[in-house]
Write a structure and sequence with these properties.
Strand content of chain A: under 5%
Shape of chain B: elongated
Bound molecules: zinc ion
Distance between the termini of chain A: 20 Å
Number of helices of chain A: 7
Structural class of chain A: mainly alpha
Distance between the termini of chain B: 47 Å
Number of strands of chain A: 0
Number of strands of chain B: 0
Order of helices and strands of chain B: HHH
Number of domains of chain A: 2
Largest interface: A-B, 71 and 51 residues
Helix content of chain B: 40-55%
Order of helices and strands of chain A: HHHHHHH
Oligomer: heterodimer
Largest sheet of chain B: none
Amino acid sequence: MNSATVRTLLVRGMLAGLGAGVLAFVFAYFVGEGSVDAAIAFEESHAHEHGEELVSRSVQSTAGLATGVLVFGVAIGGIAALAFCFALGRVGRFGARATAALTALAGFLLVYLVPILKYPANPPAVGDPDTLAKRTSLFVLMIALSVLLGTAAVLLGRRLAPAWGNWNASITAGAAFVAVVGVAMAVLPQGDAIPRGFPAADLWEFRLASIGIQAVLWSAFGFLFGYLAERVLEPRAVRGRVATLAA
Amino acid sequence: MAQSTAAPTPTTQILTPLPLRAIAPWAVFVGVLMLVLLYFVGAEQGVTSLVSGEGVHEWVHDARHLLGFPCH
Ligand SMILES: [Zn+2]
């Protein structure tokens, strides 16, 4: 029965991720594509030898973008649902919706925002293809570090809470996380330099769009999944609010 | 289809943790599957290729950049 609950939550997490992906795609199309086009225009004006175009720009910016963002949404939805199953009833006095919101917030911070503070999102034309292997491993390493240290900080906070109280324990664990992540960022090698002449405003706009896409994705996931998970885990609470819901 | 795992007192909102042995098999199999999906969106045909050619990379190219993955 518990395994069936996990399965139900997992399916709902993936569905919530898909729904969140739709919203993130709409945001990405209207807010993000302009700076991608600007970067590609810069790339082409600098006479990079380009092979034949496999997928046209109009497909890349619509069906291609949608595929990538939706698959990403389903995947992070599934993983976040698993994290939610672990966190439920283990991180404090939170109900299903609050636990879902906190899981989504942790996902946004640990999987995206903290890693990109060190290795920010770059538009086309910025990265050097020769350094892709190094950049990819550093990015994955940064995500892994951030997730591990974030989990450790939560465990530390839970351990300190009985003696120190929730407030002091959370602040101490948060400060310890910031300190250790800060040291890791200082020690890890730099990402690629921005090519000379690349418009700074386009770069800023692109990075802001990227942060916006991830923020839309994770927050929509948190709300959708919280709604769906509560119906599985606390049918009585839902029934209390929705008086018309029978049995 | 919905099973209640809520604590016995109807007034409380505290939820019983799901046992780890119920989560573990899902975490292993579905977790790995989800990571494979992330790999295809974020890194396939970059440094490593499971499918030959450039089609996957080109198709998800804009999402790869905008979601923050390293690309070209
Ligand atoms: Zn690229």
